[in-house]
Write a structure and sequence with these properties.
This protein has 216 residues and is of the alpha+beta class. The protein has one domain (3-202). The chain is 27% helix and 16% strand. Strand 6 (173-178), helix 9 and strand 7 (195-198) form a beta-alpha-beta unit. The termini are far apart.
């Protein structure tokens, strides 16, 4: 058994997450998730969530372990609402098979990969079992994971990130969660193997959010 797979089983991690604009969903369900640098292969346009970080990691797709990076997710939604020229949009949170962690080319970051402390790190050093294990270690200056009530399934830092330097095929998609009512019946008919649901918890913050509020 792969060492990363063993950690996933031990911690009972059941999925990874990725959030995106609803406009991107048809293409994702049909073709899978492509890094920005490879979108030209699809011949279709895609809306990029965070253009700044994509400049450095344009050849990777960002995922989170078990719970979305709610800090970035919330900021992106708020920023979009402030743009009067942009029509009201909806978002979807995808859940994906954790097998991506050991079947794809992944790099593991203990916090936001675009933050000042992370961008200086060599990507290859973040592709090891040890780098993945670091996601769940205690953090200096913070209460213990037990004190914060962090589930074994969650990384310590809510902005911990997995960068996937591969295409993620549709068969890795487990489900799609929406914050508001959407035409789920049509989606269920078109994609019967994927779970479609209205699940507001995917759009909320973690229980320990107060301890990370000052984090950039």
């Amino acid at each position: 058994m792969n060492e990363i797979e063993a950690i996933v089983i031990e911690r009972e991690i059941t999925f990874l997450t990725h959030f995106t604009r609803i406009e991107n969903l048809p293409s994702i369900l049909k073709y899978g998730l492509y890094p920005k640098a490879n979108l030209g292969e699809l011949g279709t346009a895609a809306i990029i969530n965070d253009k700044l970080r994509q400049q450095r990691f344009s050849n990777a797709t960002s995922l989170s372990v078990q719970f979305p990076n709610y800090r970035m997710f919330y900021k992106l939604r708020c920023d979009l609402l402030e743009q009067e020229s942009v029509p009201k949009t909806h978002w979807v949170v995808l859940t994906l098979r954790p097998a991506i962690l050991w079947e794809k080319d992944c790099a593991f970051y203990i916090t936001n990969a675009a933050s000042s402390g992370m961008v200086m790190l060599d990507i290859d050093t973040r592709k090891s079992v040890e780098a993945f294990r670091e996601l769940f270690e205690e953090r200096d200056g913070k209460p213990s994971r037990a004190e914060l009530g962090i589930s074994d399934r969650f990384p310590t830092d809510p902005q911990a990130e997995v960068l996937v330097f591969d295409k993620i095929e549709p068969n890795y998609i487990l489900g799609c969660a929406f914050n508001t009512k959407y035409n789920l019946e049509k989606l269920r008919t078109d994609f019967p193997d994927i779970l479609f649901e209205t699940k507001k918890v995917r759009f909320n913050s973690r229980v320990d959010y107060k301890h990370w509020q000052e984090q950039k």
